[in-house]
UniProtKB/TrEMBL annotation:
Domain of life: Bacteria
Family matches, as Gene3D superfamilies: HUPs (3.40.50.620)
Membrane-spanning ranges: none
Subunit structure, interactors included: Homodimer.
Binding-site list for [4Fe-4S] cluster: 139, 142, 230
GO molecular function: 4 iron, 4 sulfur cluster binding; ATP binding; magnesium ion binding; sulfurtransferase activity; tRNA binding
EC number: 2.8.1.-
Cofactor entry: Mg(2+); [4Fe-4S] cluster
Keyword line: 4Fe-4S, ATP-binding, Cytoplasm, Iron, Iron-sulfur, Magnesium, Metal-binding, Nucleotide-binding, RNA-binding, Transferase, tRNA processing, tRNA-binding
Protein name per its UniProtKB record: tRNA-cytidine(32) 2-sulfurtransferase
Pathway(s) of this molecule: tRNA modification
The organism's taxonomic lineage, starting at the top: Bacteria, Pseudomonadati, Pseudomonadota, Gammaproteobacteria, Lysobacterales
Disordered: region residues: 1-32
């Protein structure tokens, strides 16, 4: 896997006000600044609530070229200036060698704003197109290969946190995907430890609405790289869930926000998972004989059990 790096020795004046970087037309400033303040507040709250960033952290900000990751990097740079702890930010992009990918866009942008960056080069596109049958969505395999490459680089480069650009709507959408298609109550947590225990993944945009990110990205005029270069589209299940959530939001504005808040207010005793709550001991008499499910199903009760 090839690696291109850029580490500025001194940061240009543009970092004094990240909002001043506008490669395109200069939009009205008042509304974008109000939006920026709200987003900084939401990101700062999420970082504090989940202890996402600590003193001395080296944070790998995964940058795809989409609106979410641009917004994530931009807001973290703003918060970094006045943060109560010192931490390092490095933008990392994985060039997957998709045909037509504009490889110059991200390096040009990152040099302009003065942030250290690393470009990884790994031809996962050829792997995906070889393995996935024609007409099938590539997103799932592509995501796994990308995650593996980024995790491996984080380990080699000594990053202590991996920051991803998933937002509030992604968290809610994933919850319903798991509920409808995997029969489990699970979602996309704001902070998690990777399965191998080596990486802490954080999602500082966990409290931010996608519509606000869209508005912010437009106001900032980020050089967006579309995620359709491979010809693959988001899988049908996720699209269906998003259509459902959009319909709910039109009928009852604020419903998605209510669901998002519920994800951080879980009551195990009001559900049915005996691994999370001790239902077996709840109200049980000390002298009672515990009978397993097999006995109940077969009617084979203990000899000392009184018949009715």
């Amino acid at each position: 896997m090839a690696l291109r790096m850029n580490t500025p020795q001194s940061l240009p004046r543009v970092l004094a006000d990240p909002l001043s970087y506008r490669p395109g037309p200069h939009p009205a400033r008042q509304e974008p600044h109000k939006l920026a303040r709200r987003l900084r507040r939401q990101v700062g709250q999420a970082i504090a609530d989940y202890a996402m960033i600590e003193e001395g952290d080296k944070v790998m900000v995964c940058l795809s070229g989409g609106k979410d990751s641009y917004t994530l990097l931009d807001l973290l740079m703003q918060l970094q200036k006045k943060a109560p702890v010192r931490f390092e930010l490095v933008a990392v992009n994985l060039d997957q060698k998709q045909p037509g990918f504009p490889a110059h866009v991200l390096p040009d942008y990152l040099r302009a704003i003065g942030v250290p960056y690393q470009i990884l080069e790994q031809d996962t596109y050829s792997v995906v197109t070889r393995v996935v049958p024609e007409g099938k969505t590539m997103c799932s395999l592509c995501s796994r290969l990308r995650r593996g490459a980024l995790y491996a680089h984080a380990q080699e480069a000594g990053f202590t946190k991996i920051a991803l650009g998933h937002h509030r709507d992604d968290l809610v959408n994933t919850f319903f995907l798991n509920l409808f298609h995997h029969a489990k109550i699970a979602g996309m947590p704001p902070k998690l430890l990777s399965d191998d225990g080596r990486h802490v993944v954080i999602r500082p945009l966990a409290y931010v609405r996608e519509s606000d990110i869209q508005a912010y990205a437009q106001a900032r005029n980020f050089p967006i790289i579309p995620c359709d270069l491979c010809g693959s589209q988001e899988n049908l299940q996720r699209r269906q869930v998003q259509k459902m959530l959009d319909a709910w939001e039109r009928e009852s504005p604020g419903r998605v926000e209510t669901i998002a808040r519920a994800l951080s207010d879980v009551r195990p005793e009001k559900l049915g998972d005996a691994r999370l709550f001790d239902f077996l001991s709840l109200g049980a008499r000390q002298d009672a004989t515990r009978i397993d499910a097999g006995a109940w199903q077969s009617g084979d009760l203990p000899d000392d059990h009184d018949s009715v």
